[in-house]
């Protein structure tokens, strides 16, 4: 299976390790505490926006607030929680990786790289309008879209490095010993992309992300979104993840898949 399911699987697998960091790829993929977090909720909010009216900022804001308030304990940052409660919410200059964690549906709803970039930009700036947050969303959506249309890893790497000036020439073995929890786009998106570039398959991508010992669920959602455009997500991983969604989230996923995937 391909599509936005990769971001959801990454989030659920990484959820246990977000505040319980490990520095190894040897861990149980799913356990009793594995659950969806804000990464999945916001990804499906974006998916619902795109399914309804991808031209409307009003619909985008409405869906983000609808999903966010329905799952108010999913793990949002303080500023985003305030945004969810506002009658006329405004962007608040965030540079965090929330813009990148939720962007994967934009790559699947687009008919060109340019449209994917436009949708990603719109999806980010209603909250995360800092240049680094926009850059993180755009770099992620470009990688997903290019993987979706058949680009190889070298082509994806060269494009992201050239366009966004991310340093993707570091290895995970170089990064891992000194890496720690980092919610900034600048400090987490390049590393997430490297997790994909070094991987052998979807599962290996997610194991790479968790093994960094950082913002595990979000980085696994970002890299998982790229990996699930490049490889098929194994059926057992899909099943274990989908079974942890409630009917409301599952309905949003199915509607998006029916329309775009």
What does this structure look like?
The protein is mainly alpha-helical. It is built from 15 helices and no strands. The protein has helices at 5-14, 38-53, 57-70, 78-85, 98-101, 104-109, 113-125, 131-148, 153-164, 172-175, 189-197, 202-211, 216-230, 235-242, 247-260. Helix 3 packs across helix 4, helix 7 packs antiparallel against helix 8 (131-148) and helix 11 (189-197) crosses helix 13 (216-230).
Care to give the gist of this entry?
The chain has 261 residues and is mainly α.
Question: How is the topology of this model organized?
Answer:
Elements: H1 5-14, H2 38-53, H3 57-70, H4 78-85, H5 98-101, H6 104-109, H7 113-125, H8 131-148, H9 153-164, H10 172-175, H11 189-197, H12 202-211, H13 216-230, H14 235-242, H15 247-260
Helix pairs in contact: 1-12, 1-13, 1-14, 2-3, 2-15, 3-4, 7-8, 8-9, 8-13, 11-12, 11-13, 12-13
Notable characteristics:
mainly alpha, 261 residues, 62% helix
Element string (H = helix, E = strand): HHHHHHHHHHHHHHH
Largest sheet: none
What is the count of β-strands?
A: 0
What share of residues is helical? 55-70%
**Category from helices, strands and their pairing:** mainly alpha
Shape: globular
Estimate what percentage of residues fall within beta strands. Answer: under 5%
Nearest-angstrom radius of gyration? 16 Å
* Total helical elements: 15
Q: Which residue ranges are poorly predicted, with pLDDT under 50 across at least 5 consecutive positions?
A: none
Mean pLDDT across every amino acid position = 98
Termini distance? 10 Å
């Amino acid at each position: 299976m391909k599509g936005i399911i990769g971001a959801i699987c990454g989030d659920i697998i990484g959820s246990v390790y977000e505040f319980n960091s490990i520095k190894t790829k040897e861990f149980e993929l799913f356990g009793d505490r594995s659950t969806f977090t804000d990464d999945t909720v916001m990804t499906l909010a974006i998916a619902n926006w795109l399914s309804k009216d991808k031209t409307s900022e009003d619909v985008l804001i409405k869906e983000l607030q609808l999903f966010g308030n329905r799952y108010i304990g999913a793990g949002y940052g303080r500023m985003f929680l305030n945004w969810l409660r506002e009658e006329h919410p405004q962007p608040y200059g965030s540079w965090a990786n929330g813009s990148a964690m939720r962007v994967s549906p934009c790559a699947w709803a687009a008919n060109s790289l340019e449209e994917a970039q436009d949708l990603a930009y719109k999806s980010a700036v209603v909250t995360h309008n800092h240049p680094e947050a926009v850059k993180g969303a755009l770099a992620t959506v470009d990688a997903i879209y290019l993987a979706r249309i058949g680009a190889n890893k070298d082509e994806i790497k060269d494009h992201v490095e050239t366009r966004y000036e991310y340093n993707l020439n570091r290895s995970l073995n170089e990064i891992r010993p000194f890496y720690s929890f980092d919610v900034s786009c600048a400090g987490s998106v390049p590393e997430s992309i490297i997790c994909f570039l070094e991987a052998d398959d979807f599962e290996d991508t997610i194991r790479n992300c968790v093994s960094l010992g950082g913002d595990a669920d979000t980085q696994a959602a970002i890299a998982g979104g790229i990996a699930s455009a490049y490889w098929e997500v194994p059926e057992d991983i899909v099943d274990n993840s989908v079974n942890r969604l409630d009917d409301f989230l599952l309905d949003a996923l199915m509607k998006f898949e029916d329309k775009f995937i």
